[in-house]
Write the C-alpha coordinates for this entry.
Amino acid sequence: MNVMRALLILFVCAISSTANDAIVATHYFYWYRWPNEHFRPADQPDAEGHFHHFPNPEKVSYLSDGWHEEQFRDMRAAGIQVALPVYWGAPGAYKRDSIRFSVDGIRPMLRALDRMDDDAIKLGLFYDTSTLLNDVRGAQPAGGRADLTTTAGKELFSNTIIEYFERIPPDHWARVRGGALTVLYTSAFAAKWDKTLGSHLQKAFTRRFPGESVFLVADVTWGDIGQNRTCEWGSTIVKPMLHPGLAQIGPGYNDTPVPGRTTPSRERENGDYYRTSWRKAIEHKPELVLIETWNEMHEGTEICESAELGRQYIDLTAEWVKRLRNDGPLGKPIKLRFPKPRYRTDYSWGKAIKGRGNVRADFAAVVKESGLRTAAVEDGPIRRHADHIVSLPRRGHPTRYVYFQVSDHWKFEISPTDLQLTVITRQKTSLSVEYDSHNHEATMGGAYTPAERIGPESSHVHRFRLSSAMLANRQNGGSDFRFIVAGPELEIQSVELAEIEKK
Protein backbone atom coordinates (compact mmCIF):
# COMPACT_ATOMS: atom_id res chain seq x y z
CA MET A 1 0.00 0.00 0.00
CA ASN A 2 2.81 2.39 0.86
CA VAL A 3 4.55 1.55 -2.45
CA MET A 4 1.36 2.24 -4.41
CA ARG A 5 0.86 5.51 -2.57
CA ALA A 6 4.45 6.55 -3.29
CA LEU A 7 4.01 5.75 -6.99
CA LEU A 8 0.79 7.76 -7.05
CA ILE A 9 2.55 10.75 -5.47
CA LEU A 10 5.35 10.50 -8.04
CA PHE A 11 2.77 10.35 -10.85
CA VAL A 12 0.93 13.41 -9.57
CA CYS A 13 4.23 15.30 -9.18
CA ALA A 14 5.18 14.41 -12.75
CA ILE A 15 1.89 15.79 -14.03
CA SER A 16 2.18 18.99 -12.02
CA SER A 17 5.77 19.54 -13.13
CA THR A 18 4.79 19.51 -16.82
CA ALA A 19 1.58 21.49 -16.49
CA ASN A 20 1.92 25.29 -16.47
CA ASP A 21 0.07 26.40 -13.36
CA ALA A 22 0.96 30.10 -13.59
CA ILE A 23 -1.57 32.38 -11.93
CA VAL A 24 -3.36 34.77 -14.30
CA ALA A 25 -4.54 38.04 -12.76
CA THR A 26 -5.94 41.29 -14.12
CA HIS A 27 -6.28 44.88 -12.87
CA TYR A 28 -9.96 45.52 -12.07
CA PHE A 29 -11.06 49.16 -12.21
CA TYR A 30 -14.27 49.19 -10.19
CA TRP A 31 -14.53 52.97 -9.75
CA TYR A 32 -17.37 53.39 -12.27
CA ARG A 33 -20.88 54.45 -11.34
CA TRP A 34 -23.28 55.64 -13.99
CA PRO A 35 -23.72 58.45 -14.91
CA ASN A 36 -21.28 60.74 -13.04
CA GLU A 37 -18.45 58.72 -11.49
CA HIS A 38 -15.69 58.06 -14.03
CA PHE A 39 -18.12 58.63 -16.87
CA ARG A 40 -18.33 61.69 -19.11
CA PRO A 41 -21.59 63.48 -18.27
CA ALA A 42 -23.47 64.76 -21.33
CA ASP A 43 -23.51 68.28 -19.89
CA GLN A 44 -19.73 68.33 -19.23
CA PRO A 45 -17.99 67.82 -22.60
CA ASP A 46 -14.58 68.68 -21.12
CA ALA A 47 -14.70 65.91 -18.51
CA GLU A 48 -12.85 62.63 -18.93
CA GLY A 49 -14.16 60.23 -21.54
CA HIS A 50 -13.79 56.61 -22.58
CA PHE A 51 -12.08 55.29 -25.72
CA HIS A 52 -14.21 52.13 -25.72
CA HIS A 53 -17.56 51.91 -23.96
CA PHE A 54 -19.50 49.53 -21.75
CA PRO A 55 -22.34 47.78 -23.66
CA ASN A 56 -24.95 48.81 -21.04
CA PRO A 57 -23.43 51.77 -19.19
CA GLU A 58 -26.58 52.48 -17.20
CA LYS A 59 -26.05 49.15 -15.36
CA VAL A 60 -22.46 49.92 -14.42
CA SER A 61 -21.96 50.71 -10.73
CA TYR A 62 -19.48 49.71 -8.08
CA LEU A 63 -22.50 49.45 -5.77
CA SER A 64 -24.16 46.79 -7.94
CA ASP A 65 -23.77 43.12 -6.97
CA GLY A 66 -25.01 42.19 -10.44
CA TRP A 67 -22.43 44.28 -12.29
CA HIS A 68 -19.55 42.82 -10.27
CA GLU A 69 -20.88 39.29 -10.77
CA GLU A 70 -21.10 39.80 -14.52
CA GLN A 71 -17.50 41.02 -14.64
CA PHE A 72 -16.23 38.16 -12.47
CA ARG A 73 -18.05 35.52 -14.53
CA ASP A 74 -16.55 36.98 -17.68
CA MET A 75 -13.10 36.83 -16.08
CA ARG A 76 -13.62 33.15 -15.35
CA ALA A 77 -14.77 32.61 -18.95
CA ALA A 78 -11.49 34.20 -20.01
CA GLY A 79 -9.50 31.80 -17.82
CA ILE A 80 -8.52 34.51 -15.33
CA GLN A 81 -8.25 33.40 -11.71
CA VAL A 82 -7.56 36.66 -9.87
CA ALA A 83 -9.01 40.17 -9.93
CA LEU A 84 -6.82 43.00 -8.65
CA PRO A 85 -9.23 45.77 -7.63
CA VAL A 86 -7.69 49.23 -8.10
CA TYR A 87 -7.76 50.42 -4.51
CA TRP A 88 -7.70 54.09 -3.57
CA GLY A 89 -8.36 53.54 0.10
CA ALA A 90 -6.25 55.42 2.61
CA PRO A 91 -6.46 55.19 6.40
CA GLY A 92 -8.44 58.09 7.82
CA ALA A 93 -9.68 59.30 4.42
CA TYR A 94 -12.31 56.76 3.43
CA LYS A 95 -15.15 59.31 3.36
CA ARG A 96 -13.46 61.57 0.80
CA ASP A 97 -15.39 61.67 -2.47
CA SER A 98 -12.48 60.49 -4.62
CA ILE A 99 -11.74 57.56 -2.29
CA ARG A 100 -15.21 56.47 -1.19
CA PHE A 101 -15.74 53.96 -4.03
CA SER A 102 -12.78 51.90 -2.80
CA VAL A 103 -14.57 50.93 0.40
CA ASP A 104 -18.19 51.13 -0.73
CA GLY A 105 -17.54 48.83 -3.68
CA ILE A 106 -16.00 45.96 -1.72
CA ARG A 107 -19.14 44.63 -0.01
CA PRO A 108 -21.11 44.33 -3.30
CA MET A 109 -18.03 42.64 -4.77
CA LEU A 110 -18.04 40.06 -1.98
CA ARG A 111 -21.78 39.40 -2.35
CA ALA A 112 -21.17 38.76 -6.05
CA LEU A 113 -18.42 36.27 -5.24
CA ASP A 114 -20.62 34.46 -2.73
CA ARG A 115 -23.25 33.96 -5.46
CA MET A 116 -20.62 32.33 -7.68
CA ASP A 117 -19.85 29.59 -5.14
CA ASP A 118 -16.99 27.36 -6.29
CA ASP A 119 -16.60 29.27 -9.57
CA ALA A 120 -15.61 32.48 -7.77
CA ILE A 121 -12.37 34.19 -8.61
CA LYS A 122 -9.99 35.35 -5.89
CA LEU A 123 -9.20 38.94 -4.93
CA GLY A 124 -5.71 40.34 -4.72
CA LEU A 125 -4.87 44.03 -4.36
CA PHE A 126 -3.76 46.60 -6.90
CA TYR A 127 -2.55 49.36 -4.59
CA ASP A 128 -2.94 52.63 -6.49
CA THR A 129 -0.13 54.49 -4.77
CA SER A 130 -1.44 57.90 -5.85
CA THR A 131 -3.03 57.96 -2.38
CA LEU A 132 0.47 58.66 -1.06
CA LEU A 133 -0.09 62.22 -2.29
CA ASN A 134 -1.23 64.41 0.59
CA ASP A 135 -3.80 66.13 -1.62
CA VAL A 136 -5.54 62.82 -2.40
CA ARG A 137 -5.82 61.93 1.30
CA GLY A 138 -6.58 65.49 2.44
CA ALA A 139 -3.39 65.53 4.53
CA GLN A 140 -1.04 68.41 5.27
CA PRO A 141 1.06 70.02 3.99
CA ALA A 142 -0.76 70.56 0.69
CA GLY A 143 1.27 69.34 -2.26
CA GLY A 144 3.30 66.94 -0.11
CA ARG A 145 3.99 63.25 -0.48
CA ALA A 146 4.30 60.51 2.10
CA ASP A 147 7.84 59.85 3.26
CA LEU A 148 8.02 56.05 3.50
CA THR A 149 11.33 56.12 5.34
CA THR A 150 9.59 57.47 8.46
CA THR A 151 7.57 55.44 10.95
CA ALA A 152 4.41 57.35 10.03
CA GLY A 153 4.98 56.79 6.32
CA LYS A 154 5.63 53.08 6.71
CA GLU A 155 2.52 52.70 8.83
CA LEU A 156 0.44 54.56 6.22
CA PHE A 157 1.78 52.25 3.51
CA SER A 158 1.33 49.04 5.55
CA ASN A 159 -2.05 49.94 7.02
CA THR A 160 -3.46 50.76 3.59
CA ILE A 161 -2.75 47.17 2.56
CA ILE A 162 -3.79 45.67 5.90
CA GLU A 163 -7.10 47.54 6.05
CA TYR A 164 -7.94 46.39 2.51
CA PHE A 165 -7.47 42.73 3.43
CA GLU A 166 -9.38 43.27 6.68
CA ARG A 167 -12.45 43.95 4.57
CA ILE A 168 -12.14 40.67 2.65
CA PRO A 169 -12.60 37.23 4.22
CA PRO A 170 -9.36 35.21 3.92
CA ASP A 171 -11.06 32.49 1.86
CA HIS A 172 -11.48 35.11 -0.90
CA TRP A 173 -7.82 36.18 -0.82
CA ALA A 174 -5.70 35.52 -3.88
CA ARG A 175 -2.52 33.83 -2.75
CA VAL A 176 0.82 33.23 -4.41
CA ARG A 177 3.12 30.86 -2.50
CA GLY A 178 0.71 31.27 0.40
CA GLY A 179 0.98 35.07 0.57
CA ALA A 180 -1.82 37.58 -0.09
CA LEU A 181 -1.16 38.93 -3.59
CA THR A 182 -0.43 42.68 -3.49
CA VAL A 183 0.65 44.61 -6.59
CA LEU A 184 2.08 48.12 -6.26
CA TYR A 185 1.63 50.91 -8.79
CA THR A 186 4.51 53.30 -9.50
CA SER A 187 6.65 54.86 -6.76
CA ALA A 188 6.28 58.36 -8.27
CA PHE A 189 3.77 59.47 -5.60
CA ALA A 190 6.05 58.78 -2.63
CA ALA A 191 8.61 61.28 -1.38
CA LYS A 192 11.15 58.71 -0.18
CA TRP A 193 11.44 55.00 0.50
CA ASP A 194 14.16 52.48 1.26
CA LYS A 195 14.92 48.77 1.29
CA THR A 196 13.20 48.21 4.64
CA LEU A 197 9.71 48.96 3.32
CA GLY A 198 8.88 45.39 2.33
CA SER A 199 10.06 43.86 5.59
CA HIS A 200 8.11 46.46 7.59
CA LEU A 201 4.97 45.51 5.66
CA GLN A 202 5.51 41.78 6.23
CA LYS A 203 5.96 42.21 9.98
CA ALA A 204 2.92 44.48 10.29
CA PHE A 205 0.78 42.12 8.20
CA THR A 206 1.74 39.06 10.25
CA ARG A 207 1.03 40.92 13.49
CA ARG A 208 -2.47 41.70 12.23
CA PHE A 209 -3.03 38.29 10.60
CA PRO A 210 -1.01 35.70 12.54
CA GLY A 211 0.41 33.03 10.28
CA GLU A 212 -0.26 35.06 7.12
CA SER A 213 2.09 36.93 4.79
CA VAL A 214 2.07 39.19 1.73
CA PHE A 215 3.29 38.19 -1.70
CA LEU A 216 4.50 41.64 -2.74
CA VAL A 217 4.84 42.59 -6.41
CA ALA A 218 6.41 46.03 -6.82
CA ASP A 219 6.63 48.15 -9.94
CA VAL A 220 10.19 48.42 -11.24
CA THR A 221 10.32 52.10 -10.20
CA TRP A 222 10.50 51.01 -6.54
CA GLY A 223 13.86 49.32 -7.03
CA ASP A 224 14.64 46.83 -4.26
CA ILE A 225 12.23 47.11 -1.34
CA GLY A 226 12.27 43.43 -0.43
CA GLN A 227 9.49 42.43 -2.84
CA ASN A 228 8.80 38.88 -4.01
CA ARG A 229 8.45 39.82 -7.67
CA THR A 230 8.92 42.92 -9.85
CA CYS A 231 6.37 44.11 -12.42
CA GLU A 232 6.38 47.03 -14.84
CA TRP A 233 3.47 49.25 -15.86
CA GLY A 234 3.24 50.18 -19.55
CA SER A 235 2.92 46.82 -21.33
CA THR A 236 -0.17 48.11 -23.12
CA ILE A 237 1.96 50.74 -24.89
CA VAL A 238 5.61 49.73 -24.98
CA LYS A 239 6.00 45.95 -25.06
CA PRO A 240 5.36 42.89 -22.89
CA MET A 241 7.16 43.50 -19.60
CA LEU A 242 9.09 40.38 -18.62
CA HIS A 243 10.76 40.07 -15.23
CA PRO A 244 11.92 36.98 -13.32
CA GLY A 245 8.85 34.87 -12.61
CA LEU A 246 6.42 37.46 -14.00
CA ALA A 247 4.99 38.65 -17.31
CA GLN A 248 2.85 41.78 -17.67
CA ILE A 249 0.93 42.14 -20.94
CA GLY A 250 -1.89 44.21 -22.43
CA PRO A 251 -4.00 44.56 -25.59
CA GLY A 252 -3.20 48.15 -26.69
CA TYR A 253 -3.64 51.75 -25.56
CA ASN A 254 -5.52 54.89 -26.61
CA ASP A 255 -6.43 57.74 -24.22
CA THR A 256 -7.30 60.38 -26.83
CA PRO A 257 -10.76 61.09 -25.31
CA VAL A 258 -9.14 62.26 -22.05
CA PRO A 259 -8.47 66.03 -22.23
CA GLY A 260 -4.86 67.15 -21.86
CA ARG A 261 -3.26 63.77 -22.57
CA THR A 262 -0.36 63.44 -25.01
CA THR A 263 0.41 59.77 -24.42
CA PRO A 264 1.41 57.64 -27.42
CA SER A 265 -1.13 55.07 -28.55
CA ARG A 266 -0.64 51.38 -29.30
CA GLU A 267 -2.68 49.88 -32.13
CA ARG A 268 -4.46 46.67 -31.23
CA GLU A 269 -4.20 45.40 -34.82
CA ASN A 270 -7.31 43.23 -34.44
CA GLY A 271 -5.74 41.41 -31.49
CA ASP A 272 -2.30 40.83 -33.01
CA TYR A 273 -0.47 42.99 -30.47
CA TYR A 274 -2.17 40.99 -27.68
CA ARG A 275 -1.33 37.70 -29.40
CA THR A 276 2.35 38.60 -29.74
CA SER A 277 2.38 39.67 -26.10
CA TRP A 278 0.87 36.38 -24.96
CA ARG A 279 3.37 34.45 -27.07
CA LYS A 280 6.31 36.19 -25.40
CA ALA A 281 4.72 35.75 -21.97
CA ILE A 282 4.33 31.99 -22.43
CA GLU A 283 7.88 31.62 -23.76
CA HIS A 284 9.05 33.44 -20.62
CA LYS A 285 7.49 30.68 -18.43
CA PRO A 286 6.23 32.97 -15.66
CA GLU A 287 4.81 32.10 -12.28
CA LEU A 288 2.43 35.06 -12.52
CA VAL A 289 0.81 36.78 -15.52
CA LEU A 290 -0.65 40.27 -15.06
CA ILE A 291 -3.10 41.46 -17.73
CA GLU A 292 -3.16 45.25 -17.98
CA THR A 293 -6.19 45.80 -17.76
CA TRP A 294 -9.63 44.27 -17.37
CA ASN A 295 -11.62 47.48 -17.82
CA GLU A 296 -9.67 50.78 -17.84
CA MET A 297 -11.96 52.36 -20.45
CA HIS A 298 -10.37 55.83 -20.37
CA GLU A 299 -7.11 54.46 -21.72
CA GLY A 300 -8.53 51.85 -24.06
CA THR A 301 -6.63 49.01 -22.37
CA GLU A 302 -9.64 46.86 -21.49
CA ILE A 303 -10.17 43.21 -22.38
CA CYS A 304 -13.70 43.11 -20.92
CA GLU A 305 -16.75 43.19 -23.18
CA SER A 306 -17.18 46.55 -24.92
CA ALA A 307 -19.71 48.07 -27.31
CA GLU A 308 -17.04 48.37 -30.00
CA LEU A 309 -15.20 45.05 -29.71
CA GLY A 310 -17.78 42.77 -28.12
CA ARG A 311 -16.26 39.73 -26.39
CA GLN A 312 -13.30 39.41 -28.75
CA TYR A 313 -10.68 39.87 -26.03
CA ILE A 314 -12.44 37.63 -23.53
CA ASP A 315 -12.31 34.87 -26.13
CA LEU A 316 -8.71 35.69 -27.08
CA THR A 317 -7.66 35.55 -23.45
CA ALA A 318 -9.37 32.18 -22.97
CA GLU A 319 -7.58 30.86 -26.06
CA TRP A 320 -4.15 31.96 -24.87
CA VAL A 321 -4.65 30.88 -21.27
CA LYS A 322 -5.41 27.42 -22.66
CA ARG A 323 -2.11 27.55 -24.56
CA LEU A 324 -0.39 28.66 -21.38
CA ARG A 325 -1.79 25.67 -19.50
CA ASN A 326 -1.00 23.19 -22.29
CA ASP A 327 2.44 24.65 -23.06
CA GLY A 328 1.40 25.62 -26.60
CA PRO A 329 1.05 25.42 -29.51
CA LEU A 330 1.97 29.07 -30.05
CA GLY A 331 1.67 29.19 -33.83
CA LYS A 332 3.85 31.20 -36.19
CA PRO A 333 5.25 34.56 -35.04
CA ILE A 334 3.13 37.53 -36.09
CA LYS A 335 4.63 40.51 -37.88
CA LEU A 336 2.99 43.63 -36.53
CA ARG A 337 1.96 46.37 -38.92
CA PHE A 338 2.88 48.91 -36.23
CA PRO A 339 5.78 47.41 -34.25
CA LYS A 340 6.18 50.60 -32.21
CA PRO A 341 3.74 52.88 -30.36
CA ARG A 342 2.19 55.64 -32.45
CA TYR A 343 3.18 59.04 -31.17
CA ARG A 344 1.21 62.28 -31.23
CA THR A 345 2.53 65.28 -33.05
CA ASP A 346 2.14 68.89 -31.94
CA TYR A 347 2.59 71.25 -34.87
CA SER A 348 1.10 74.23 -33.04
CA TRP A 349 4.50 75.86 -32.44
CA GLY A 350 8.02 76.16 -33.86
CA LYS A 351 7.16 76.17 -37.57
CA ALA A 352 9.84 78.78 -38.36
CA ILE A 353 12.72 76.48 -37.43
CA LYS A 354 11.81 73.72 -39.90
CA GLY A 355 14.91 72.65 -41.83
CA ARG A 356 17.46 74.29 -39.54
CA GLY A 357 20.47 72.50 -38.14
CA ASN A 358 19.73 73.33 -34.54
CA VAL A 359 17.09 74.49 -32.05
CA ARG A 360 17.76 76.73 -29.08
CA ALA A 361 16.35 78.16 -25.87
CA ASP A 362 18.26 81.27 -24.71
CA PHE A 363 16.61 82.73 -21.64
CA ALA A 364 18.70 85.92 -21.79
CA ALA A 365 17.71 86.68 -25.39
CA VAL A 366 14.74 88.66 -26.71
CA VAL A 367 13.36 85.55 -28.37
CA LYS A 368 13.88 83.17 -25.49
CA GLU A 369 12.72 79.91 -27.07
CA SER A 370 13.18 78.96 -30.72
CA GLY A 371 12.18 75.40 -31.50
CA LEU A 372 13.00 74.32 -27.95
CA ARG A 373 10.88 75.07 -24.90
CA THR A 374 10.42 74.07 -21.30
CA ALA A 375 7.51 71.80 -20.45
CA ALA A 376 5.12 72.33 -17.56
CA VAL A 377 5.38 68.97 -15.82
CA GLU A 378 4.26 68.15 -12.28
CA ASP A 379 7.52 66.44 -11.35
CA GLY A 380 9.67 69.16 -12.99
CA PRO A 381 8.68 72.55 -11.52
CA ILE A 382 10.70 75.61 -12.59
CA ARG A 383 10.76 79.35 -11.94
CA ARG A 384 11.56 81.90 -14.64
CA HIS A 385 13.84 84.90 -14.18
CA ALA A 386 14.86 87.66 -16.59
CA ASP A 387 17.86 85.79 -17.97
CA HIS A 388 17.61 82.20 -16.71
CA ILE A 389 15.32 79.52 -15.33
CA VAL A 390 15.67 77.74 -11.99
CA SER A 391 14.73 74.17 -11.12
CA LEU A 392 12.50 74.08 -8.05
CA PRO A 393 12.70 71.40 -5.36
CA ARG A 394 10.10 68.68 -5.13
CA ARG A 395 8.87 68.41 -1.58
CA GLY A 396 10.68 65.61 0.24
CA HIS A 397 12.59 64.51 -2.87
CA PRO A 398 16.29 65.26 -3.44
CA THR A 399 16.17 64.90 -7.25
CA ARG A 400 15.15 67.81 -9.50
CA TYR A 401 14.02 67.53 -13.12
CA VAL A 402 13.76 70.12 -15.90
CA TYR A 403 11.85 68.97 -18.98
CA PHE A 404 12.20 70.26 -22.56
CA GLN A 405 10.13 69.77 -25.70
CA VAL A 406 11.61 69.87 -29.20
CA SER A 407 9.34 71.31 -31.90
CA ASP A 408 7.87 68.55 -34.03
CA HIS A 409 8.50 70.76 -37.07
CA TRP A 410 12.23 70.22 -36.44
CA LYS A 411 12.40 66.55 -35.44
CA PHE A 412 9.70 64.02 -34.61
CA GLU A 413 9.94 60.22 -34.40
CA ILE A 414 13.11 60.36 -36.44
CA SER A 415 15.20 57.44 -37.61
CA PRO A 416 18.19 56.82 -35.31
CA THR A 417 20.11 60.11 -35.31
CA ASP A 418 23.00 61.39 -33.20
CA LEU A 419 22.53 64.87 -31.71
CA GLN A 420 24.59 67.10 -29.45
CA LEU A 421 22.98 68.82 -26.49
CA THR A 422 24.72 71.84 -24.97
CA VAL A 423 23.52 73.54 -21.79
CA ILE A 424 25.06 76.59 -20.11
CA THR A 425 24.44 77.04 -16.39
CA ARG A 426 25.08 80.04 -14.14
CA GLN A 427 26.99 77.96 -11.61
CA LYS A 428 29.36 75.05 -11.83
CA THR A 429 27.25 72.01 -11.17
CA SER A 430 26.86 68.35 -11.97
CA LEU A 431 23.88 67.15 -13.96
CA SER A 432 22.80 64.32 -16.23
CA VAL A 433 20.33 63.94 -19.10
CA GLU A 434 17.73 61.37 -20.11
CA TYR A 435 16.33 61.56 -23.65
CA ASP A 436 13.88 59.81 -25.97
CA SER A 437 15.82 57.28 -28.06
CA HIS A 438 15.55 54.10 -30.11
CA ASN A 439 17.26 52.13 -27.32
CA HIS A 440 14.42 49.76 -26.46
CA GLU A 441 16.37 48.31 -23.53
CA ALA A 442 16.26 51.63 -21.66
CA THR A 443 13.39 52.69 -19.37
CA MET A 444 9.94 52.80 -21.00
CA GLY A 445 11.24 51.41 -24.29
CA GLY A 446 13.91 54.10 -24.60
CA ALA A 447 11.86 57.14 -23.57
CA TYR A 448 14.30 57.74 -20.68
CA THR A 449 17.73 56.85 -22.05
CA PRO A 450 20.82 58.16 -20.21
CA ALA A 451 22.88 60.50 -22.42
CA GLU A 452 26.62 60.21 -22.89
CA ARG A 453 28.52 63.11 -21.31
CA ILE A 454 31.13 64.95 -23.38
CA GLY A 455 33.73 66.77 -21.30
CA PRO A 456 34.04 67.36 -17.52
CA GLU A 457 31.25 66.40 -15.15
CA SER A 458 31.14 69.71 -13.23
CA SER A 459 31.25 72.86 -15.35
CA HIS A 460 29.37 75.92 -16.59
CA VAL A 461 29.12 74.36 -20.05
CA HIS A 462 27.76 70.84 -20.30
CA ARG A 463 27.73 68.79 -23.48
CA PHE A 464 25.99 65.49 -24.09
CA ARG A 465 25.78 63.12 -27.01
CA LEU A 466 22.27 61.84 -27.71
CA SER A 467 22.98 58.67 -29.68
CA SER A 468 20.23 57.11 -31.77
CA ALA A 469 17.76 59.84 -30.77
CA MET A 470 14.08 59.38 -31.58
CA LEU A 471 12.29 62.48 -30.15
CA ALA A 472 8.72 61.16 -30.16
CA ASN A 473 7.31 63.20 -27.25
CA ARG A 474 7.31 60.14 -24.98
CA GLN A 475 8.48 61.71 -21.73
CA ASN A 476 6.19 63.36 -19.18
CA GLY A 477 4.28 66.31 -20.59
CA GLY A 478 5.09 65.32 -24.18
CA SER A 479 8.76 66.12 -23.56
CA ASP A 480 11.80 64.83 -25.47
CA PHE A 481 14.55 65.15 -22.84
CA ARG A 482 15.06 66.15 -19.24
CA PHE A 483 17.90 67.36 -17.04
CA ILE A 484 18.42 65.57 -13.75
CA VAL A 485 20.21 67.23 -10.86
CA ALA A 486 20.62 65.89 -7.34
CA GLY A 487 21.20 68.59 -4.76
CA PRO A 488 21.16 72.38 -5.17
CA GLU A 489 18.94 74.17 -7.63
CA LEU A 490 19.91 74.24 -11.31
CA GLU A 491 20.14 77.67 -12.98
CA ILE A 492 19.99 77.35 -16.77
CA GLN A 493 20.93 80.21 -19.11
CA SER A 494 20.64 78.48 -22.46
CA VAL A 495 20.10 75.10 -24.09
CA GLU A 496 20.92 74.08 -27.66
CA LEU A 497 20.28 70.88 -29.55
CA ALA A 498 22.10 70.38 -32.86
CA GLU A 499 22.67 67.74 -35.48
CA ILE A 500 26.12 66.14 -35.44
CA GLU A 501 27.66 66.49 -38.85
CA LYS A 502 28.63 63.19 -40.43
CA LYS A 503 32.28 62.94 -41.41
